[in-house]
């Protein structure tokens, strides 16, 4: 089958996209609401089961479209209840998706790229290189798969997806249109019905797209800050060389300009002897002065070959206390899923790296092993 006759994967379409596609088929647009509900709310992939659609439309859908989700290649469950799925895509690459249950809340960490085009020094995903952006279907398909798999569990614990964080593999704002369309589906009452406060996009600081996101989507924002100065952030988050703190902080300040009660989450991974000095806590407080922000301190999760170490608990607590003295809402994230490499910064997947970055990293690991 050539590209001209390739069936439409309906997971690629939000309600507006479905309406436009159905209009081309001379079908009434209200059918989009019904299809969206069947596919996402009920998890139905067999058109014959969509009983409130006419038989003629069901036949047409079966001929012209598919509902295709990523395949589960591997599934792991942590001792703390965290789930990690390795999902295989049609191109042969694999991505990772993580579900974290806690206190009546279920948070799904969703990937937006195969690998990552950025090169943050402390992140395992960055060492894997980059292949391509994910499609809408591949992004929302992670939610579809997780909801289905969790609903089949026989357990007394809450296994509902109540929150989604775009914090998996990749930089979401470098795959803007697909990510925003997928988040539209997450927010739709006909699909997953998530609150705008319960869908969070995490960015390393693609400043122009932060302003665009504020206009296009009501979702929450998290920023991978990790350093209070440009010199250090240039090292940890090289994107800072393009969009330094002088540009990033005003973008954070403006994001919720029309909703003063909402705050941007500042993510700050705690690296022993690198960014955890008390003086740096004071610098961070000064940097965030006047910004509607809360700080999320993240204990570093090691991965093979990294030279970084996690800050000691007492050091993290002291850092947190200083920020609180400056009236900054600050929490320390609990590490979850580290026994299955599902914790923050550990997602790697299995990708065909177009950047050759993973080859260089593997060579470095071999050199470290030879020295040892």
What distance separates the N and C termini? Answer: 53 Å
Query: What's the rounded overall pLDDT mean?
Result: 90
Strand order of the largest sheet: 3-4-5-6-9-10-11-12-13-14
Biggest β-sheet strands, sense, barrel? 10 strands, mixed
Radius of gyration: 21 Å
Note the beta-strand portion: 15-25%
By DSSP, the count of extended strands is 14
Which residue ranges are poorly predicted, with pLDDT under 50 across at least 5 consecutive positions?
none
- Percent of residues in helices comes to 25-40%
Number of DSSP helices? Answer: 12
CATH architecture of the largest domain: Alpha-Beta Barrel
3D structure, described in words:
There is one protein chain. The protein has 372 residues and is of the alpha/beta class. The protein has two domains: 3-66, DNA polymerase, domain 1, CATH 1.10.150.530; 71-257 and 337-362, Alpha-Beta Barrel (TIM Barrel). It is 35% helix and 19% strand. The chain has twelve helices and 14 strands. A ten-stranded mixed β-sheet has the order 3-4-5-6-9-10-11-12-13-14, covered by helices on one side. Strand 9, helix 6 and strand 10 (199-203) form a beta-alpha-beta unit. Helix 7 (207-216) runs parallel beside helix 9 and helix 10 packs parallel to helix 11. The longest helix has 16 residues, at 136-151. The protein is globular, with a radius of gyration of 21 Å.
